[in-house]
Amino acid sequence: MLTGMHIAIIGGDARQLEIIRKLTELDAKLSLIGFDQLSDGFIGAKKQTFEDVEFQTVDAIILPSSGANQTGEVETIFSNETIHLKPDIVKETPEHCIIYTGISTDYLTQCAKDANRKLVKLFERDDVAIYNSIPTVEGTIMMAIQHTDITIHKANVMVLGLGRVGMSAARTFSALGARVKVGANQSDQLARITEMGLEPFHTKNLEEAVGDVDICINTVPELILTAKVIAKMPTNALILDLASKPGGTDFRYAEKRGVKALLAPGLPGIVAPKTAGKILANVLSQLLSEEYEKREEDS
Ligand code: NAP
Asked: 252 with 161, same domain?
């Protein structure tokens, strides 16, 4: 339980509703900022403005996946007001206050550093990234179906990168009957691809590997699908670039060559906000419970 723990939830999307639901069940006291248009009522959660909240009693701040942008603006779909996380607000919190976010920006990192508060980036955690890979891959399947006129079954699918998303994508497309080739740059990853019954290749040989590709799924967060590589792809190939912005594709050249290339960020929040919210809610409740127990032991 989190009885008496004061948590400020600032901005967000449908995923935040699952977090609010879970934390109110655990008896935390929630201040919701940027939620004035939220119609659901949650017992123990109060819709407030920055001015209403006593930040001196706030034990944790929960920001949305995107954190705060370079001017401190926090995204919210539940308010027409623009909300800003200002450095002074963070400084008002007690020393033990922890800030939880999906990803960080220079602004947010600096804000936490100046106030000497711990910043936890949830999307860097393996557990969150692996659980999130499930809705990410389901969203990728949806896009592959929407943007091709062939079945995934028997399609030549290429996955670039065998990280947390790449592995789930390779396995799932293979289970749907696609012929899956996976590009990696480490010998252990190439061995793993072989063990999975898929066709491995080293990404240094990418240009030679793309000649017959129908769907190319990129998870490598650096420019890998260069103009030289795209020039070797069939013009009816589809590139689904899942890597964080700006992706790993030369989109300008893809368009010039007539290869359809789509950057597809934030798929979990689009295709399965409830599941994506539950993933975050479960991890957050576990982390907050650990903090709560630590503080109970110390007091
Ligand atoms: P990850 O576990 O770090 O996987 C990335 C993989 O790419 C790693 O295995 C890395 O290998 C490999 N890699 C890097 N450079 C390479 C190269 N030149 N050739 C071959 N492999 C290379 O990250 P992830 O969690 O799978 O996420 C992948 C990307 O998708 C990230 O940008 C993430 O932000 C994004 N993402 C997008 C969505 C969405 O909805 N679109 C959802 C979740 C994540 P090493 O580790 O050996 O360097």
From this structure: yes
Residue with the bigger pLDDT between 177 and 269: it is: 177
Do the Cβ atoms of 91 and 52 come closer than 8 Å? no
Question: Do residues 204 and 224 both lie within one domain?
Answer: yes
Nearest CA, atom 42, ligand 1: 136
The rounded Å distance from CA 86 to ligand 1 centre is 32
Same domain, 164 and 35: no
Work out the average pLDDT over 119-126.
96
Per-residue pLDDT for 295 more than 90?
no
> Is there a single domain that holds both residue 153 and residue 261?
yes
Q: Which numbered atom of ligand 1 lies nearest the CA of 183? A: 20
Ligand 1 centroid to Cα of residue 196, in Å, is 18
Identify the CA nearest to 26 among candidates 290, 268, 225.
290
Q: Which atom of ligand 1 is nearest to the CA of 162?
A: 9
Number of domains in the chain: 2
Is residue 175 located within the same domain as residue 247?
Answer: yes
Q: Is 269 in the pocket of ligand 1 (CB under 6 A)?
A: no
Tell whether 1 is covered by a domain: no
**Is-cis flag, bond preceding 246, omega within 30?**
yes
**CB-based contact 111:94 (threshold 8 Å):** no
Range of the domain at 60: 6-124+273-298
Tell the residue nearest (CA) to atom 27 of ligand 1: 165
Contact 116, 91 (CB under 8 A): no
pTM of the model: 0.89
Distance (Å) from CA 3 to ligand 1 centroid: 38
Quote the tokens at residue 4.
Answer: 């008496």
Residue 83 CB–ligand 1 contact under 6 Å:
no
Same domain, 202 and 286: no
